[in-house]
Amino acid sequence: MSELVTGEAVALELRPARLPSRALAVLLDLVAAMAVYVAVTIVLVTSTASLDEAAQTALSIASFVLVLVGGPIAVETLSHGRSLGKMACGLRVVRDDGGPIRFRHALVRGLIGVIEILMTFGIVACIASFVSARGRRLGDVFAGTLVVRERIPVARTGFVPPPPPWLSGRFAELDLSAVPDGLWLAVRQYLTRMQQLDPQVGWSMAERLASDLAERTGAPVPHGVPPAAYLAAVVQERQAREARRAFGGEAARAATSAAPAPAGPVAAADAPAVDGAAAGFRPPAGAPGAGSEPSDGERPAAPVPPAVPAGERPRTGFVPPA
Question: Are the C-beta atoms of residues 133 and 186 closer than 8 Å to each other?
């Protein structure tokens, strides 16, 4: 990954294209340009047979310059850095700040490309790409451009563990409209990576996030609920509200059905010993509140959310980001 800084001081992480993919894209562009050049030459030869030799030579030189030099420049300008070969290989030419290229960038790249690609059979371009840290040829250096990859494999998103069954639906009345997107992102990242953290560090981080979330919602964390379990339950409630907003009540019930709530008080053998311990919801040894987990009689039964009619959408209090 290459970090580029835009004019607004925004860091962009782009993946520069490697030499094999760039060489393949250039080869495809040359094949297409040569095919067009041969077709134009045949048309000119048949239509200018009555002209003298000097005129035919001038027309052949003009057709060479227009097709093999002006053609790639025009294509890159109109397509904002995506020629035929680059489209096939998933590449794009961008400016040093990550923005789309303009005519002057394509012009400089095309003119220098005649020397380092056409006249030297690509040897100069290959050497420059090997020397450059981001694989840029001389045309990219003088034009202030960079060839990047557009097709990047999508990284697998982390799995957010579901809350314990006895917490499902318990936070249906929370007002989540004041929770910023940054806090949601921090909570989600913690839940997906808490198994990789040290137990003591993870517990303190969960307490801090739960405190921030409770401050935003205006309701304190229930007594005896582990902070990680509280975070997972609130995230599940938010996902259920989003699904209810987008698809109606059926999708919301499907979102919460992954962790069904028990009908009565949860027995000690059925409570977080299965879900909570495996997901890291129980406090580590020596952590504050390690022995304050609610007993069998203190765990309230999770209320079953009422059925939502197909044509009605209840007010959830969640405002999606702009």
Answer: no
Whole-model pTM over 0.85: no
Query: What tokens appear for 138 in the block?
Result: 């001389």
What does each of the 322 residues of the chain score in pLDDT, given as a tens digit?
Answer: 444 444 444 444 568 888 888 999 999 999 999 999 899 888 888 888 778 888 888 888 888 888 888 888 999 999 988 899 999 998 999 988 778 899 999 999 999 988 888 888 889 989 988 888 788 899 999 999 989 888 665 555 556 778 888 877 788 888 888 888 888 888 888 888 888 888 888 888 889 998 898 888 888 888 888 888 888 888 888 888 887 777 665 544 555 554 444 433 333 334 343 344 445 566 666 555 554 445 444 455 444 445 444 444 445 444 555 5
Amino acid at 8: E
**Distance in angstroms (rounded) separating the CA atoms of residues 17 and 23:** 10
Distances from the Cα of 139 to the Cα of 97, 117, 125, 170, 314, angstroms: 16, 10, 9, 62, 59
